[in-house]
Amino acid sequence: MAMNYNAKDEVDGGPQCPPGGTAKNRRPDNTAFKQQRLPAWQPILTAGTVLPTFFIIGLIFIPIGIGIFVTSNNIREIEGNVFMYYGLSNFYQNHRRYVKSRDDSQLNGDSSALLNPSKECEPYRRNEDKPIAPCGAIANSMFNDTLELFLVGNESYPTPITLKKKGIAWWTDKNVKFRNPSGGESLKERFKGTTKPVNWVKPVYMLDSEPDNNGFINEDFIVWMRTAALPTFRKLYRLIERKSDLHPTLPAGRYYLNITYNYPVHSFDGRKRMILSTISWMGGKNPFLGIAYIAIGSISFLLGVVLLVINHKYRNSSNTADITI
Amino acid sequence: MTVPKEMPEKWARAGAPPSWSRKKPSWGTEEERRARANDREYNEKFQYASNCIKTSKYNILTFLPVNLFEQFQEVANTYFLFLLILQLIPQVSSLSWFTTIVPLVLVLAITAVKDATDDYFRHKSDNQVNNRQSQVLIRGSLQQEPWMNVCVGDIIKLENNQFVAADLLLLSSSEPHGLCYIETAELDGETNMKVRQAIPVTSELGDISRLAKFDGEVVCEPPNNKLDRFSGTLYWKESKIPLSNQNMLLRGCVLRNTEWCFGLVVFAGPDTKLMQNSGRTKFKRTSIDRLMNTLVLWIFGFLVCMGVILAIGNAIWEHEVGTRFQAYLPWDEAVDSAFFSGFLSFWSYIIILNTVVPISLYVSVEVIRLGHSYFINWDKKMFCAKKRTPAEARTTTLSEELGQVEYVFSDKTGTLTQNIMVFSKCSVSGRSYGDVFDVLGHKAELGERPEPVDFSFNPLADKKFVFWDPSLLEAVKTGDPHAHEFFRLLSLCHTVMSEEKNEGELYYKAQSPDEGALVTAARNFGFVFRSRTPKTITVHEMGTAVTYQLLAILDFNNIRKRMSVIVRNPEGRIRLYCKGADTILLDRLHPSPQELLSTTTDHLNEYAGEGLRTLVLAYKDLDEEYYGGWAQRRLQASLAQDSREDRLASVYEEVESDMVLLGATAIEDKLQQGVPETIALLTLANIKIWVLTGDKQETAVNIGYSCKMLTDDMTEVFIVTGHTVLEVREELRKAREKMLDSPHAVGNGFTCPEKRPSAKLPSVLEAVAGEYALVISGHSLAHALEADMELEFLETACACRAVICCRVTPLQKAQVVELVKKHKKAVTLAIGDGANDVSMIKTAHIGVGISGQEGIQAVLASDYAFSQFKFLQRLLLVHGRWSYLRMCKFLCYFFYKNFAFTMVHFWFGFFCGFSAQTVYDQYFITLYNIVYTSLPVLAMGVFDQGIYTSVLTFFIPYGVFAEATRDDGSQLADYQSFAVTVATSLVIVVSVQIGLDTGYWTAINHFFIWGSLAVYFAILFAMHSNGLFDMFPNQFRFVGNAQNTLAQPTVWLTIALTTAVCVMPVVAFRFLKLSLKPGLSDTVRYSQLVRKKQKAQHRCLRRVGRTSSRRSGYAFSHQEGFGELIMSGKNMRLSSLALAGFTTRSSSSWLESLRRKKSDSAGSPSAGPDKPLKG
Q1: For residue B165, what is the DSSP state?
Q2: Which of A249, B364, B412, B1089 could disulfide-link A242, Cβ–Cβ 3.0 to 4.6 Å?
Q3: Is B411 annotated as a binding residue?
């Protein structure tokens, strides 16, 4: 329409532009992002995508489950390397106060932390005015039973099975996380000025005769220090290596387990176990995973069928309903 | 909220000087104000506020303490501070202190930076305003001073088109008799010019030397927010002169058509009426904020419950197991009983479980809102090319609230209308001009127009005037006598003043834009109104100057709704020209040319149907004798002592009869672009639109029609104009009764009982089906807003489809908004452009300012600003809806994610002796929300789903790990591996969940979802790396964990299983919902369908014009009194008066009568320039 009279004349007294407005181009950029017009893929749950997914999940999960289940069950046979575990139950290695009661600096060989352990270690920080090495409740409660395995053969006295002490800890733990303190000739000198944990029989530098498995880098110690997530747990104790391909590692026969009992568990209703196991590509025996896979796979398949039926039954009616709206 | 109760006395009070004792300390500390001109020492004694305006909150020194204090007033921040303190207690601390302090510091820092920038801009705008220059009279000379240095008692000089710097007492001006014209659009939204006059004793103080000697003292009321009243006294030279609002220039006004004026500063800065009216800025919270706070409270309660359960568990465990486990794990020294241990573990669990409501929630919400506000700023569809202003989200915190607006309160002038009056069409002796036809003779659509009419033949034409129909000019050029007479009338019958600075450069000072448009139209068609004296009008008729002798102006008033002039042309013939509202004028026409009458009526109907403001033009020849007699009668009437008005009216009535119809004009009060469409669309979206305007009722109703808020299809439009409480109540009651009685109301077998208490009215009125509208005027509104009637008013108004409140004050606007806000619990939006809308904008949940106009007050007070009303549609229906949906999805997802995350701790509690041991690495806890909330998450989820996920993510790894060993034979179930597995499962499940919930996979979504997964693994490996461990062995004790754990196939099988189990039910459920019930996408499709339908309807709507009711526009923006002013010659320059050689009537008579008229009309619906607050 015609524009001919503007009652509001231009004002020269006041500011013409709102603050921030200058001569610069204030037109917004015409980009897909700024205009919220980005190309988008809109996945919609349709029968064509959902149902096949369910069937595929079913088809994948069931075989995997069966595979895992079979593998897991086969582990029974004592072939290849055999692993020897000790198990404890009702032992709360995951308790908050327990978990934090350690000084990783000390365990990493830090000399100041060695003589002045972290406060987290209380009440196992100092004993008789000497710092405890290794300090803390975890170290103090280290499992110290000795397990020995003998094959009761035809001979009158049993033959001991060689139990390998080394190679039971993670490489990173043994080489990175745990280090003996530096300095000093002997290990004993390096730990000078410290005292053993209250419950320990021997000091830390006498855990083993071999120097590369003694002190903080003793593998039994490292394994113990890797706290368990649940109150019932097992920890790797020894390896039984296969001697030759011809003989099974542990041939059938009677075995005799000698336990040097140092570790009391009665007070807290704990129980100890010894487990011998081989492993497969998926670790030790673990029926849960296989069963779970089979179950989930089946459920997925069934769900697919149910949905297919429902979809088939109701589809037409709902579509027409849409149109009438 | 105070409404002046005793309005009518304002004029009476202005007449008599106030007695000293009358002042009551009702305004706070200041009881009265005294200001002596040119005496700063004297005025300083009172320590009045300076003219410096401060809207900023901080300065450099106070920023940190004040800002921190403010931030810790937020419950959330204090809560996290409390958590931080808890974490510093070693017995309780289950998480390192940095898990809380990092986010807390981050949040505080971000908020502080935001506040600082906001305040910086406030400082800047304050500075800009405070440093505007004004001319201050200091020690006898004019000096340029910034506004902020202006003090009470100073005399300042204003020039044309300048903003008034403070509330001034007008002393003198360049115009005769100390007159001065102002525009008060910033204050009340009215754009017609108003006259202010200096008191006679000071009006001669034109030169600086005399002004410098002026030492009058003003004693007046203390600062208040009443825009239309002022009472005070000037004491000067032993005389007391009463002062009224008529002598005041208020801050925010603009001086117009006045070369200069001098004023004495009475109120400065924060004391000015403008600032007193602006109200306090309130922090606006959205309903999502409130929802979030309630949710957080509930969740906190839930958290306490879980804490209590776990604490009891801990006490029992310590009692049963812990005591016996002491050989390996002795109790802390301070702990002496299982009960105390439980108590401590309660606090520990509060710390751990607080991740359900992490502080990052608030940050993320802010970030999302910030993003949305940027999208609003960037929106090209909300950019006004003409004014070069993009939309501006001035607040970043309200974006999702836009999607929930139910009530829109709109200003009229400048918001709905452009405040441009356009001569659009006319009907001359039965022929209509102004429609645009294309070659084939059809009415042309917009955009396919031919060239506008070429006015180059006329050197005096206004270049800005555009007309599209060439046939009218043809008619004028060919000498059609009707067309000539038509434009002659337009060029003679008005009260416009002309100004010719250079030869041929004409400027018209019209007191109403309608009139300006008409005179400009005549000017371009060759009838140029050139100049006037009190007794003559000079018009250039097709190039030749003709001087008419002006015999009388029969002035406009609201009852007459018409004005006439009686002129004698050079040939000596006397003719009366009249223009006025059609309803009035058609009755006063000579009945003979019936055919012409009916054609013109048809045209009028047509124009009105298009929403144009119509006027009818007529003339009448008078013979000399008759005129002589009439002039005599008129003189007698005007000299009468009593009922002068009535007698004059009847004299006018007598002469304005049997007139000959000339034609009709149609003026378009130009709406902003797309206003009717926007309103129709918003109405369809069930948003109610109320127009609150300071303008007159007729104008408002007229605009209501032209923007399709009111239609003739409506069952009824109720007009409430009662002056007393009882009247208003009765009118409202009648309106309700009508709504209930109408057949529509009893739609679905609904019967209403006869006597229903008014408290239950809402339920009845909700059922009203017919379309009603309510128009209420300001003084009725004042009654309606009283405590005992407000509910009645609200219910009546809410039952109507459209509500128009006219002649409302800024404060009343805010009150109406407040009323709806309070009782309707609905989200309100106020949109306006002027300072008079500021209080309303601040009160409403969302305030929108129209930018690109001259004033910036509204924009400064607003939350969103853009330049066109039509953008409201996009703001509400696109940005608002998107923001709201996204925010809802985000919140759902956020709570889902955190429940899934945190509840794992709850389950783990049962296996770790309720010792508040965390499942995850503490870095994961710190980073979980930081990394994940940077996502533009679009997700759904519910709380129980979160718990479900947490059960699975905990128990599946639990089931697997309980017996598992690694493939190298060592144990798998160590705490750290378990932590990594659970965390990884959780991250993957949550990411898949986002993936499922993302409706639109844009590149950004891909980037963030994949990116966050990548970042998770990157951080995981970094945190578990040798390097960090070597530096801080005690902090990064998870060394080597990631590679050792994630190399295990069992772990990945577990993760896959967990993911499948978590997601499967969700997918199945959604699929079922989609196929059994129409889901979201169907809704979207549906709404799109509806929108298409609407568009079709629109087109129909536009085509179908209304036919029945007509509205005249001229009457409404005009005020009476100017005719007399012109005839008296008061507003003419002395030079032109001298040329004309006329003697003027006694100087004060016209002003007296003007004033009397105003005081009379103060009680009537549409009064003069000053709006009554209350009748």
Answers
A1: -
A2: A249
A3: yes
Give ipTM to 2 decimals. Answer: 0.82
The rounded distance, in Å, linking the Cα atoms of B23 and B17 is 12
What does the pLDDT read at residue B17?
A: 35
* CA proximity to B866, closest of B389, B379, B185: B389
Give domain limits for chain A.
Answer: 47-66+289-314, 92-231+251-270
Bond into A134 cis (ω within 30):
yes
Q: Which of B329, B965, B1029 sits opposite A284 (nearest CB)?
A: B965
Closest CA of chain A from B594, distance in Å: 31
Question: Is B411 a catalytic site residue?
Answer: yes
Residue of B nearest to A176 (CA): B1026
Active-site choice (B167, B411, B514, B863):
B411
Residue with tokens 């041929």: B504
Burial class (CB in 10 A: 0-12, 13-18, 19+), B113: exposed
Bridge partners of residue B413, in order along the sequence: B417
Q: What are the strands, taking DSSP E only, across B723-845?
A: 772-777, 802-806, 827-832
Q: B898 Cβ partners below 8 Å, 6+ apart?
A: B355, B356, B357, B358, B929, B946
Domains detected in chain B: 150-278 (2.70.150.10), 370-415+671-739+770-880 (3.40.50.1000), 423-439+449-670 (3.40.1110.10), 882-1073 (no CATH)
The shortest CB-CB distance from A176 to any of B377, B390, B1026 is to: B1026
Mean pLDDT by 10 residues, chain B (1175 residues): 34 34 44 84 84 82 88 80 85 76 82 86 86 85 86 88 88 83 71 78 82 86 80 85 86 85 89 73 68 80 90 89 82 80 88 77 75 81 76 78 86 79 86 69 51 79 81 86 89 84 76 83 88 85 88 80 88 90 82 81 81 84 90 85 81 87 85 83 84 78 80 80 85 83 46 39 52 84 84 85 83 86 86 80 86 68 84 84 78 80 85 81 73 45 52 72 62 79 85 75 76 84 83 78 83 87 83 65 51 44 39 51 64 45 39 46 38 34
Q: Residue A323: pLDDT band by 50, 70, 90 thresholds?
A: very low
List A6's β-bridge partners, or say none.
B420
For residue B557 the two structure tokens come to 């008033």
Letter string b/e over residues B1143-1166, b meaning 16 or more CB atoms within 10 A of that residue's CB: ebeeeeebbebbbebbbebbebbb
Q: Can you give the three-state secondary structure of chain A, one letter per residue?
A: CCCCEECCCCCCCCCCCCCCCCCCCCCCCCCCCCCCCCCCECCCCCHHHHHHHHHHHHHHHHHHHHHHHHHHHHCCCCCCCEEEEEEEECCCCCCHHHHCCCCHHHHCCCHHHHHCCCHHHCCCCEECCEEECCCCHHHHCCCCCEEEEEEECCCCCCEECCCECCCCCCHHHHHHHCCCCCCCCCHHHHCCCCECCCCCCCCHHHCCCCHHHCHHHCHHHHHHHCCECCCCEEEEEEEECCCCCCCCCCCCCEEEEEEECCCCCHHHCCEEEEEEECCECCECCCHHHHHHHHHHHHHHHHHHHHHHHHHHHHHHHHHHHHHHC
Chain A residue nearest residue B1042, CA to CA: A172
pLDDT of res. B16: 33
pLDDT of residue A221: 92
Q: Is B807 labelled a binding residue?
A: yes
DSSP three-state, residue B394: coil
The one-letter amino acid at A290: G
Question: Which chain B residues are Cβ-neighbours of A14 within 8 angstroms?
Answer: 132, 163, 254, 854-856
Q: Exposed, middle or buried by CB within 10 Å (0-12, 13-18, 19+), for A127? A: middle
User: Does pLDDT of A22 surpass 70?
Assistant: no
Mutate to test the interface with A, among B125, B323, B328 (most CBs of A within 10 A): B328
